[in-house]
Write a structure and sequence with these properties.
With 325 residues, this protein is of the alpha+beta class. The protein has helices at 2-6, 18-28, 33-36, 40-43, 83-86, 104-114, 119-125, 131-134, 138-149, 184-196, 198-206, 260-264, 272-275, 303-324; strands at residues 12-17, 46-56, 59-68, 96-101, 155-164, 175-182, 209-212, 216-220, 246-251, 278-285, 289-296.
Length: 325
């Protein structure tokens, strides 16, 4: 139970019993449609949820753990890993990459058992003013097709992408690769979009390689990072990438920091020194556990100590600059 979770606590730990928490929220929110229509079968599936925050040498880790009650074992929403997606993301050293391998058939089985109504019907029954007008006309048609032909006629749960920065000081326009496992109905929708929307056809025309058929959507924006024989992405720095069904990394060491936040919003310029403390961010998830990790520049120093030292230096330098003015 929750007590056993705290026995293995990190620097900070939060844990709760899912059913008890949702029941309390349900009682406290009598007018909320979502909570009041949450069926008891659904509440009984989840057991405990725990979140740990851990400050380690060179890393700040947010660790997640989910435990489920009997009956949930038939619904693993993910495949065992995402390595086959990584293998299709081209070559080179990406600054960012994402891979997901979702078991859409299990999600569909779960939805039919616990949420048999269609999404559009659920939204309409909420009776929220203006919501019905926001539901796209195509949604009921797509849902009807999914119910008739299965979710894999649209997507098969494989998604991935990679972003590449040009060498040099300037940000420039990054190269990118992407892939998605699709079905014939989704392929038809994409083909219609390419034919009818100039923006989509322009993106396709700009690609070095583009593949669209009833099984897969693939795109490589440059020849440099397109597939080459047996070569795959160079992810040596991120050895765990692809080991979990949901995997992501952002390599901040490859991103020019100067002017990055200022370019988004001038008011963010003062926070740019904080970006320089971060070497990378990684994320890995499966059905029962996951983590989001901020990797700091000094791998040999506790991350909290490193950040406090750097902040002290920044404050000190700022004070000296103000005094000089």
């Amino acid at each position: 139970g929750v007590a056993s979770i705290f026995s293995e606590s990190k620097d900070m730990t939060m844990a709760f019993d899912y059913k008890e928490l949702m029941t309390m929220i349900k009682v406290a929110s009598p007018t909320n449609y979502y909570y009041n229509n949450m069926n008891d079968k659904f509440l009984d599936l989840y057991d405990q949820v725990a979140i740990d925050l851990s400050f380690e040498e060179g890393a700040i880790k947010m660790l997640y753990h989910w435990s489920y009650k009997k009956g949930m074992e038939e619904f693993d929403f993910f495949k065992s890993d995402s390595k086959e997606i990584v293998a299709k993301l081209g070559t080179g050293n990406p600054v960012m990459a994402f891979a997901a391998n979702i078991d859409v058939e299990n999600i569909e089985k779960f939805r039919k058992k616990y949420y048999p109504e269609s999404i559009s019907s659920e939204l309409q029954s909420m009776e929220i003013e203006g919501l019905e007008e926001m539901i796209p006309d195509e949604l009921p048609v797509i849902e009807a097709l999914i119910m008739k032909e299965g979710i894999k006629s649209f997507i098969d749960g494989r998604f991935g992408g990679a972003l590449f920065m040009n060498d040099g000081e300037e940000l420039g326009i990054p190269d990118y690769n992407f892939m998605a496992g699709i079905g014939p109905n989704m392929a038809d929708l994409i083909k219609e979009g390419i034919d009818e929307l100039p923006e989509m056809s322009m993106i396709v025309d700009m690609m070095n390689q583009f593949t669209l058929n009833d099984q897969i959507l693939l795109g490589y924006s440059s020849e440099e990072h397109a597939p080459k024989g047996t070569s795959i992405l160079n992810t040596e720095k991120f050895k765990n990438f692809g080991n979990k069904p949901i995997s992501l990394f952002i390599d901040f060491s490859k991103i020019p920091k100067e002017g990055l936040l200022k370019g988004i919003d001038r008011s963010l310029a003062d926070y740019e020194p904080l970006l320089d403390m971060v070497d990378a961010i990684t994320m890995e998830f499966d059905m029962t556990e996951g983590n989001i990790t901020i990797h700091t520049k000094d791998a040999n120093k506790n991350a909290l100590t490193y950040i406090m030292d750097r902040l002290s230096d920044i404050i000190s330098n700022t004070s000296l600059l103000l005094n000089a003015i």
